[in-house]
Amino acid sequence: MKKDVKRNRTKITNDLMHYIYYNIDSAINLDTLSEDFEISKFHMHRIFKKEFDSNIYETIKSIRLQKASNLLITNKNSTISEISSLCGYGSQTSFIRAFGARFGMSPKEWRKGGFMEYSNQILKDIPKGLTSDENYSKLSPTIKKLPTIKVYYIRHHGYSEAIKKCWQKLQTFILSHDIKNYTQIAIYHDNPIITPLMECNYVACISIADEETPDDIKLPSFELDSGVYAEFNAQGYHEDILKLVQWIYHEWLPSSGYETTTKPPFLIYDENNFLNENGFFSLKYYIPIILA
């Protein structure tokens, strides 16, 4: 009984978080959400706080600002007003005020290069963050239209070695059900080079072939949106992936003729660095794109 209550609470909060991320470009009405989830507003706030150690209002605000900070770098042809609107702000003035309080500079200052110093400070907290000698500047993406992908997942708050436990749990599920045809997918809801790593929300996922999906699966699920993505094939070790992300967002994307959206990037593992002894990864990194 206690396990069922916890599982139900986790499902509700995961569904709430998923809804927030995928509707961050619009007004989010918590009264409507409580009706849709068929729980009281008080109970919704209480279990969200218990699960994520943050209230819903502050979480929405934080996600809006993180998305905006990213788009200010990548979407050079969009105005500050357009970006604030894309991230769910009804007023440019309130956006500028909130952005300054969060990042210590105006959106204009951030866009003019302030983000680089902010990002480098985050990477300095990682032993190999800036000293990695991996160079991804010669990568050339393939542009692809991807279908909707159903995934089963475990959500993790913070980008650290602790993510390994999520992948081990998913691997235990795969082995226990003798599943052969599956794909490992990691979703980066937050850009780990401009969001402090312990504030990042990371989602470890598996996509399972329909004929192998167990009837009694209890893992939460959602669908990754179909769309047009730039695909980068890359290899490296552990934190090298942050160098890859930095290069894509800070160098490739701003000069590519494309812009990105509020949809999260994700990667598909050929070799998962969290599940092998030497920390090696081989992956395809997908970032949603539109013409600038």
Radius of gyration: 19 Å
**Major β-sheet annotation:** 8 strands, antiparallel
Low-confidence stretches: none
* Secondary-structure arrangement, i.e. CATH architecture of the largest domain: Alpha-Beta Barrel
> What is the level 1 CATH name of the largest domain?
Alpha Beta
Q: Could you tell me the strand content as a percent range?
A: 15-25%
Mean pLDDT: 90
Oligomer: single chain
Secondary-structure element order, N to C: HHHHHHHEEHEEEEHEEEE
Helix content: 40-55%
- What is the end-to-end distance? 52 Å
Helix count equals 9
Which strand order do you get reading across the main beta sheet?
1-6-9-8-3-4-2-5
Descriptive overview:
The structure is a single chain. The protein has 292 residues and is an alpha+beta fold. The protein folds into two domains: 2-111, Homeodomain-like (Arc Repressor Mutant, subunit A), CATH 1.10.10.60; 142-291, Multidrug-efflux Transporter 1 Regulator Bmrr, Chain A (Alpha-Beta Barrel), CATH 3.20.80.10. 42% of the residues lie in helices and 22% in strands. It is built from nine helices and ten strands. The chain has helices at 2-22, 30-36, 41-52, 56-74, 80-86, 92-103, 107-124, 163-176, 240-252; strands at 142-146, 149-157, 182-188, 201-208, 221-224, 227-237, 258-259, 266-271, 280-288, 290-291. The chain has an eight-stranded antiparallel β-sheet, sandwiched between helices. A hairpin with an 8-residue loop joins strand 8 and strand 9 (280-288). Helix 1 packs across helix 3. The protein is globular. The termini are far apart.
